[in-house]
Amino acid sequence: MMTTFASLLHPEAFLSPLAIDEAVQRALNEDLGRAGDITSMATIPETTHAQAVLVARQSGVIAGLPLAVAVFQKLSPDISIQARFRDGGVVAAGAHVLTISGPARAVLTGERTALNFVGRLSGIATLTADYVRHTAGTKMRICCTRKTTPGLRALEKYAVRCGGGFNHRFGLDDAILIKDNHIAVAGGVTAVLQRARAHTGHLVKVEIEVDTIAQLREVLDTGLADVVLLDNMNIAELTEAVKLAKELSKGRVVLEASGNVTQGSIAKIAATGVDYASSGALTHSAPNFDVALDIDV
Fold first, then answer.
1. Are 281 and 142 in contact (CB under 8 A)?
2. What is the pTM of this model?
3. Is 247 a catalytic residue?
4. Active-site choice (130, 211, 231, 237)
5. What is the largest CA-CA distance in the chain?
6. In sequence order, which ranges of 76-176 are alpha helices (DSSP H)?
7. Do residues 277 and 256 make contact, with C-beta atoms less than 8 angstroms apart?
8. How many helices (H) and strands (E) does the chain have?
9. Each residue's pLDDT tens digit, 185-220
């Protein structure tokens, strides 16, 4: 049975078929330009058939396979793809992930676009999995941020889920996050929280950023925040913040650590007892995952 992109999606992470189609079409338009793949058209007869294998050159967590499948199937309805993994699967170096067979021109034309998607998203998933590994035995969850590649946010946040991480807000429209500049312009912590609560509906969460214990205490005294982002606090401050939140909010307020959340610091941050840690590095600094397409001769 031919593999479809839907069958390769991570079972616990949503990625809209519309987002897949839009991203793939945009990427192909970028690569094919006005004249198409002139190299393949010039050198490969139209009737030539080819079979290729998508190979992982390193170990890690694979992601982006639905996009790779969509690339090839959009180029030719006669392409057949067999999958040995699905997104979120752990692959070893040398693993054959997909087998692609069909018109050679379409296989060659889609090669780079498919590899770009899989390499980028697998890199994010693999890095996220390493962060998650450092939080084992704690309640803390690791989250991504809005520091994503423009136009690829849905895909990159999906890749974080494939690696075992969780998503922060997707955009400015799905939660209120009051940052330091909002506080400065609005006239202080209490004033900005009062305005936020007066404006928002009962289903919208309100989060506020603080960078001192004194600010945290003021936030907790108002009782108006659902989540507090502890920005660039050291381990001692995070530990004190957790204790203070338990005392003043009885555990009602969720605490999120942010700023300098790295592979080297994540374990110590998790041990403080905070509920979440967010790291832009999951998406903006993930190394590309080494994957290749080899023609099976």
1. no
2. 0.95
3. no
4. 231
5. 74
6. 104-133, 153-162
7. yes
8. 11, 12
9. 999 999 999 999 999 999 999 999 999 999 999 999
**Residues 147, 195, 205, 246: which is the catalytic one?**
147
- pLDDT single digits (tens) 228-281: 999 999 999 999 999 999 999 988 999 999 998 999 999 999 999 999 999 999
Per annotation, catalytic residue among 112, 133, 205, 217:
112
Place of tokens 């849905």: 154
How many other C-beta atoms are found inside a 10 Å radius of the C-beta of residue 149? Answer: 12
**Is 145:280 a contact under the CB 8 Å cutoff?**
yes
197 an active-site residue? no
Stretch(es) of the chain classified as CATH 3.20.20.70 = 175-279
Determine whether 147 is an active site residue.
yes
One CATH from 3.30.70.890, 3.90.1170.20, 3.30.530.20, 3.30.428.10 for 5-124+286-295: 3.90.1170.20
Examine the residue annotation and report whether 231 is marked as an active-site residue of this protein: yes
Sequence letter at residue 248? L
Quick check: 282 and 142 in contact, CB under 8 A?
yes
Quick one: which of 145, 183, 134 has its CA closest to 281? 145
Please provide the size of the chain in residues: 297
> From the candidates 57, 139, 179, 252, which is the catalytic residue?
179
What is the location of CATH 3.90.1170.20 in the chain? 5-124+286-295
Q: Which is the catalytic residue, given 37, 87, 209, 256?
A: 209
